[in-house]
Amino acid sequence: MTQSEFRYAHHPEDAKKYTTEDLRREFLINDLFNEDKIKLVYSMYDRLIVGGIMPSTQALKLEPTDDLKAQHFLDRRELGIINVGGAGKVTVDGEVYELANKEALYIGKGAKEVVFEKSGDAQPYFYINSAPAHHTYPTKKITKNEAEIVELGEEKYANKRTINKLIVNSVLETCQLQMGMTELHPGSVWNTMPSHTHTRRMEAYFYFDLEEGQTISHFLGQPQETRHIFMQNRQAVLSPEWSIHSGVGTSNYTFIWGMAGENMDYGDMDGIKTNELK
């Protein structure tokens, strides 16, 4: 079974007037994983689709929603998958890819059948991002050992973190989709701080590996007009191109960042000094 939602884009002047309830309704995705279901959210921000797939007692096939007006989900799209749970497998047009925890799979435009299944006793959680594509690139599995690794931050600023670039153009070719995973070290709680914006692409964050009973405050909005959303484990949030996307937790955690837009340069961002945020 597939559940789908549609989210419009927002003008920053309108977002300034949003209540807590408005912000959570428009940007937060709080029920991504449901047993034996596929949950998809189609965003008008660069037409990115954010989804959660949880096969438990049966295989789940990725079908096109009415929003796509397509025969197959990937007729005009590319897809990135990161498994954040137990062992699972993804079958793409008959070829099987086994995905362990924190392993990724890129699927290029034109694949006809994509099926998700559980492999072992532990429950897999497949987090997905999908963006429009104009060219077909090969399907490829990416392990953490194959990722481009970047160490950032300092313990004294509580932002020491390891960035695993999994689906990026320095690792494999894609049309516009980029995905990676940032792991906060024990004792560090701040992500993407100092913060930045990048008007040439939007972003989505998915938070997981959060200790039971803890929370994360995700910051969004223009640098001089910020807002926040408190988030729980395995929740996602949409970040417009005009918005910062930083967060702080009451314990350390891991998050997946996914981007779509016109620029594939990871370093193309407009930095904001921490003491200039309002």
UniProtKB/TrEMBL annotation:
<dbReference type="InterPro" id="IPR011051">
    <property type="entry name" value="RmlC_Cupin_sf"/>
</dbReference>
<dbReference type="GO" id="GO:0019698">
    <property type="term" value="P:D-galacturonate catabolic process"/>
</dbReference>
<dbReference type="GO" id="GO:0045490">
    <property type="term" value="P:pectin catabolic process"/>
</dbReference>
<feature type="binding site">
    <location>
        <position position="245"/>
    </location>
    <ligand>
        <name>Zn(2+)</name>
    </ligand>
</feature>
<dbReference type="Pfam" id="PF04962">
    <property type="entry name" value="KduI"/>
</dbReference>
<keyword id="KW-0862">Zinc</keyword>
<dbReference type="InterPro" id="IPR027449">
    <property type="entry name" value="KduI_N"/>
</dbReference>
<comment type="pathway">
    <text>Glycan metabolism; pectin degradation; 2-dehydro-3-deoxy-D-gluconate from pectin: step 4/5.</text>
</comment>
<protein>
    <recommendedName>
        <fullName>4-deoxy-L-threo-5-hexosulose-uronate ketol-isomerase</fullName>
        <ecNumber>5.3.1.17</ecNumber>
    </recommendedName>
</protein>
<dbReference type="GO" id="GO:0008697">
    <property type="term" value="F:4-deoxy-L-threo-5-hexosulose-uronate ketol-isomerase activity"/>
</dbReference>
<dbReference type="InterPro" id="IPR014710">
    <property type="entry name" value="RmlC-like_jellyroll"/>
</dbReference>
<comment type="similarity">
    <text>Belongs to the KduI family.</text>
</comment>
<dbReference type="InterPro" id="IPR007045">
    <property type="entry name" value="KduI"/>
</dbReference>
<feature type="binding site">
    <location>
        <position position="198"/>
    </location>
    <ligand>
        <name>Zn(2+)</name>
    </ligand>
</feature>
<keyword id="KW-0413">Isomerase</keyword>
<dbReference type="InterPro" id="IPR021120">
    <property type="entry name" value="KduI/IolB_isomerase"/>
</dbReference>
<dbReference type="GO" id="GO:0042840">
    <property type="term" value="P:D-glucuronate catabolic process"/>
</dbReference>
<keyword id="KW-0479">Metal-binding</keyword>
<feature type="binding site">
    <location>
        <position position="196"/>
    </location>
    <ligand>
        <name>Zn(2+)</name>
    </ligand>
</feature>
<feature type="binding site">
    <location>
        <position position="203"/>
    </location>
    <ligand>
        <name>Zn(2+)</name>
    </ligand>
</feature>
<dbReference type="GO" id="GO:0008270">
    <property type="term" value="F:zinc ion binding"/>
</dbReference>
<comment type="function">
    <text>Catalyzes the isomerization of 5-dehydro-4-deoxy-D-glucuronate to 3-deoxy-D-glycero-2,5-hexodiulosonate.</text>
</comment>
